[in-house]
Amino acid sequence: MRYGSASLGYINANQQDLTQDTGGPKVVTLYWPLTDEAPDLARRHAYQTSYAQWLPRVVAELETYHPGVTPYLQRADLWVWGHGMVAPTPGLLWGPGRAAAQRPVRNRIFFAHTDFSGISIFEEAFYQGIRAARELLGTA
């Protein structure tokens, strides 16, 4: 993530390859939240934006991270992919609604979601998974 950027940054999508880095081509995934407009309007605009319109924006963003990267780009697959996330609002983290949402259903369905932490990141998802497993096993 770059300070002041419209995007959330990118990841090396090959990070889980079992082989050592051979110096070959990489797959990167750039995340760009559409937060400049109301959600319904942002979605509508995103779907109305063509590949030819998205591509220069994405390449320009990658250039801010790595000036001169454009000639090395071999291919760009672009799509709008929704990713619902909780909006951290006052009362969410310690309020009764969050506690109620965590309760299992008839001790048969247990919930583990990053929304329970108020932030959607891997570490929180991992924690919530462990918490739900312990609850299921009766060791919480």
Explain what you see:
This protein is mainly alpha-helical and 140 residues long. It has 2 domains: 9-72, no CATH class; 96-137, no CATH class. The protein has 4 helices and 2 strands; from the N terminus they run E-E-H-H-H-H. It has helices at residues 39-48, 51-65, 96-102, 122-137; strands at 9-12, 28-31. The longest helix is centred in the last third of the chain and has 16 residues, at 122-137. It starts with 8 loop residues before the first strand and ends with a helix. The model has no long low-confidence stretch (mean pLDDT 85).
What is this entry, summarized?
It comes from Hymenobacter coccineus. This is Amine oxidase domain-containing protein. The chain has 140 residues and is mainly α.
Q: Structurally, how many domains make up the residues?
A: 2
Query: Which structural class best describes the helix and strand composition?
Result: mainly alpha
Give the radius of gyration.
20 Å
Largest sheet: 2 strands, antiparallel
> How many E strands?
2
Number of helices, counting only DSSP H or I runs of 4 residues or more? 4
Percentage of β-strand residues = 5-15%
Straight-line N-to-C gap = 35 Å
- Unreliable stretches (pLDDT < 50, length at least 5) are none
